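Many introductory courses stop at the sequence. We go one step further.
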Amino acid sequence: GRIKRITEKESDILRYLYTYRNQLVKREDLLKELWGENDYFFGRSLDVFITKIRKYLKEDPDLSVENVFGVGFIFNVPTEE
């Protein structure tokens, strides 16, 4: 019931993850889509943004961003029936 203000980059990441919700999103694809390249420093920035997004989502136990070690992320969202 609370409103959170997020940055444009956080919004871009969340939108991209939601587009591929419940599917594996490769870290490399996410970096190339949002930063234009797969660079170490952009990767570190992505990690910070993912941590912040997880913090925002922690109040809703139905939503989570799962790490797939060495590959990418899965944005777990309940399926609509």
